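Appendix C reproduces, verbatim, an entry submitted by the partner laboratory led by Prof. M.T., so that reviewers can inspect both the input and the predicted structure.
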Amino acid sequence: LAHAAPKLASLNIRGAFLVAPPDLETRLSMIPGARDFIPVPRDPLPFPSLMAASKTDPYASHEAAGDLANAWGSLLVDAGDAGHINADSGHGPWPEGLMTFTAFLGRL
């Protein structure tokens, strides 16, 4: 999204809900095929955004996620001790995420 954002600025995008962004700068070797995405743009996103990040994500420290959220102008939401939040890690329905998303939509 950070790479595409400048091209999306002219569109009427209301917001972006980001979950578990990887820290490509320090954990590139853990993420096959990610080399094309570095360096990660650090310009503010041209629309409101919210980022949910876990304190125990093996692909990004909470500090790295917070740093990206700050650079992009995203509101950071602590997802607690959730590991990497995706279907491959066993996450199925995520009621807390749905509630966070619904609250985010209400602010747009």
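The mean pLDDT is 88. Additional entries are available on request from the coordinating office.
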